[in-house]
C-alpha cells in the first residue's frame, strides 16, 4: 500500500482532518481533534501508526512480527506501527485503520459523538 491509498482511505472516514503537527515528515489524521493514524513520510517502506485494542495489538504483533511492531514514539500498549512493504494484505490494513478510527470515536465524549453524528 502506498501513501496515496492510505491517505485516501483515512479521508473516507467521517469528520477526518489531516495535519502536519510534528513537521513535514509526519502526516497525522484526526477525528474530532483526536489522532487515529500517523504516517512517517520519510520512511521507505512506508510506516504507519494506528491505535489498537491492547489484546488485539499483542496478537497482531505475534502473528506479523516483521511487519507489526509496538507503536514507534507512541504508547506501546495502545498503538502499533505497521510496515507497509507489501506483506500485509490491503484489506487487513483497511480493517486496522477502521479499528483505530472506531476506537477513537468510542473514546469521544458524549457531546463530541453527538456532534460527529450530526455532521454531514
Automatic annotation (TrEMBL):
Annotated keywords: DNA-binding
Organism for this UniProt entry: Autumnicola edwardsiae
Keyword DNA-binding in annotation: yes
Database matches in InterPro entries: YjbR, YjbR-like_sf, YjbR/MT2646/Rv2570-like
Entry protein name: MmcQ/YjbR family DNA-binding protein
Pfam families documented for this protein: YjbR (PF04237)
Record-level Gene Ontology MF annotations: DNA binding
Domain of life: Bacteria
Keyword Manganese recorded: no
Taxonomic path: Bacteria, Pseudomonadati, Bacteroidota, Flavobacteriia, Flavobacteriales
Amino acid at each position: 500500500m502506498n501513501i496515496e491509498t492510505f491517505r485516501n482511505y483515512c479521508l473516507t472516514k467521517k469528520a477526518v482532518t489531516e495535519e502536519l503537527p510534528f513537521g513535514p515528515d509526519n502526516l497525522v489524521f484526526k477525528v474530532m481533534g483526536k489522532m487515529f493514524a500517523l504516517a512517517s513520510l520519510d520512511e521507505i517502506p512506508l510506516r504507519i501508526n494506528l491505535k489498537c485494542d491492547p489484546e488485539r495489538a499483542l496478537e497482531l504483533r505475534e502473528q506479523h512480527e516483521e511487519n507489526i511492531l509496538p507503536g514507534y514514539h507512541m504508547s506501546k500498549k495502545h498503538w502499533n506501527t505497521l510496515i507497509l512493504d507489501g506483506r500485509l494484505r490491503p484489506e487487513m490494513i483497511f480493517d486496522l485503520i477502521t479499528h483505530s478510527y472506531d476506537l477513537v470515536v468510542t473514546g469521544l465524549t458524549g457531546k463530541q459523538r453527538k456532534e460527529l453524528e450530526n455532521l454531514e
